[in-house]
């Protein structure tokens, strides 16, 4: 599953930390930063549980899946937010409010 986008134009992934959760598992934290042009639109940390004996590549699989879901959610939000009729909705609400 490749990280692709509609509005996100650049991504950066940072290794944050690994914490000992208990005797046989760890919490690995990876940060996703996404940009639309020069604007940072996503800056979110993802916590992935790693259990002793798991394959290290499982961290990649879990991390990519979670990050891709977040990017897909952002892109879906943008389809609504940038839809031309959404401007009409805002204008109509603003004009119809009684003050």
Describe this structure in words.
The protein has 99 residues and is of the alpha+beta class. It has one domain (10-96). The protein is 38% helix and 38% strand. It is built from 2 helices and 3 strands, in the order E-E-E-H-H. Strands 1-2-3 form a 3-stranded antiparallel beta sheet, with helices on one face. The longest helix is centred in the last third of the chain and has 25 residues, at 57-81. Mean pLDDT is 88; it is low at 1-5.
Helix content: 25-40%
Q: Given the C-alpha coordinates, what overall shape results?
A: elongated
Order of helices and strands: EEEHH
What is the alpha-carbon Rg in Å? Answer: 19 Å
Short description:
The protein is α+β, with helices and mostly antiparallel strands and 99 residues long.
List the helices and strands and how they pair.
Elements: E1 10-22, E2 25-36, E3 39-51, H1 57-81, H2 84-96
Notable features of this structure?
three-stranded antiparallel beta sheet; 38% strand; alpha+beta; 99 residues
């Amino acid at each position: 599953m490749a990280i692709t986008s509609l509005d996100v134009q650049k991504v950066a992934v940072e290794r944050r930390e690994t914490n000992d959760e208990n005797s046989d598992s760890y919490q690995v934290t990876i940060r996703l930063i996404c940009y639309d042009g020069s604007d940072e639109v996503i800056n979110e940390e993802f916590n992935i549980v790693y259990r002793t004996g798991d394959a290290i590549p499982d961290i990649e699989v879990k991390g990519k899946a979670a990050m891709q879901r977040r990017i897909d959610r952002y892109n879906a939000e943008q389809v609504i937010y940038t839809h031309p009729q959404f401007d009409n909705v805002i204008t109509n609400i603003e004009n119809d409010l009684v003050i």
